[in-house]
Amino acid sequence: MPVVVRGDQGVDIDEVTFLRGEAGTTGHGNSLPRSARQRIIRRAKVKRVTERRTYSYLGPAGTFTEAALDQVAEARGQEWRPVHNVGEALADVLEGRSHAAMIAIENSIEGGVSTTQDALATLPGLRIVGEYLVKVNFVLVAPRGTTLEDVTVIAAHPVAYAQCHGWLGEHLPNHAHVPAASNVASAIGVLDGSSPAQAAIAPPGIVQHYDVDVLASEIGDSTSAVTRFVLVTRTTMPPEPTGADKTSLIVELPDDHPGALLDMLEQFSTRGINLSLIESRPIGDALGRYRFVIDADGHVADERMADALLGIRRFSPRVVFLGSYPRADRKIVQYPDRYADEVFVEARDWLRGLITGEPEV
Question: What start and end residues bound the annotated signal peptide (predicted)?
Fold first, then answer.
């Protein structure tokens, strides 16, 4: 049954007409007595059908990705579908199994998540609609009765493993590493015997889901590590601008020549747009060919951003617009007055006047 939303209360217009007649409203225009309004709302609540949505995330339960998804208000109470990797999560969205997918895109220690960046560059029809930050720390866990001296092999997701090099080098300098599909999968493999490891690097929340001993806490090299996640849907209109927004793009250069990268960057700098991230990723068709993953401060609805995107589109053979969405930190974007929307509008009106022959004031 299709979901129908009618007004703020989901009210059926025919029902309003019926209740007006039932209430005998005359001489009051379109107003309804309070009792009739309450009856409309009660009936609307009974009639309203809520569509149950599915959200994909890197599982199983207890991962940092699950913690990010828990920040999405509209996802609470919906179906959460754990998957094994970013590709599977995005395929769920593209093929209609899920409404959206939560995926990691950047870490404050390791930088951009290359698998996510490459997937977003090559899979058409996706749009980022929100970003979420999760503070990252790790524990070393093992089956009950295991001691640190027993550990010679450690299971860990590669990104997590890279963030614990310092602690591991100091406390387990001779260990071997077995890659795992996720931070929680590393612990599951140790517990069920499918992994040769005696211990696993996992999120602190693992103890809420599995019977493990914590051999060491806070083993990450940085106490301020944060992972940035994005919520991805099929292509849709961007969320409304908030003044604290971010726009994500993937841009390819037209050719390899001195100043090519500068030419691209000037499209932003000449319009007062700050770039909070720019990373290169190999295109894969030839050695030395790269695309650039860009996060720019502002929204596509902002005049300065729209003008920059037009410049980028003229300049680049391929631009992937990933989305404009509210910043997770809600930090208002600052820019000089000369880049305000009204300045762009005034300049455009001035140019239109020149073209149409209007006298200059």
Answer: none
Note the pLDDT of residue 99. 98
Residue 259 forms part of a structural domain: yes
State the residue for tokens 């409203």: 25
Q: How many residues does the chain have?
A: 361
Closest CA to 119 of 80, 97, 96, 88: 88
Cβ neighbours, 10 Å, residue 239: 17
DSSP state of 63: -
Res 205: pLDDT: 86
Beta strands 126-135; 176-179: pairing state = unpaired
Number of domain units in the chain: 2
Amino acid letter for position 333:
V
The single-letter DSSP state of residue 152 is S
Q: For residue 82, which phi and psi values (nearest 5 degrees)?
A: -75, 135
Q: Which residues of the chain have pLDDT under 70?
A: 1-50
Q: Which residue has the tokens 């030839």?
A: 286
Measured on CA atoms in the order 233, 239, 341, 276, is the torsion positive or negative?
A: negative
**Unique residue bearing structure tokens 């059926």:** 12
The shares of helix, strand and coil residues in the chain, as percent rounded to the nearest 5, are 35, 25, 40
Residue 102 domain flag = no
Integer-rounded Cα radius of gyration of the chain: 26
Residue among 158, 157, 144 at smallest CA distance from 198: 144
Per the structure, the complete domain to which residue 351 belongs is given by: 237-361
- Maximum Cα–Cα distance across the chain: 88
CATH number, domain with residue 176: 3.40.190.10
Does residue 288 sit in the same domain as residue 327? yes
Task: Please tell me the predicted confidence (pLDDT) of residue 59.
Answer: 85
Q: Are strands 245-252 and 290-297 parallel, antiparallel or unpaired?
A: antiparallel
Q: Are residues 171 and 251 located together in one domain of the fold?
A: no
Neighbours of 78 (CB within 10 A): 18
Residue 243 and residue 342 in one domain: yes
Whether residue 344 is contained in a domain is answered as yes
| Domain termination site, one of 147, 182, 216 | 216
Query: For residue 245, is it within any domain?
Result: yes
Identify residue 37 by its one-letter amino acid code.
R
Domain boundary among 216, 250, 271: 216
What is the Cα–Cα distance from 87 to 187, expressed in whole angstroms? 22
DSSP state of 270: T
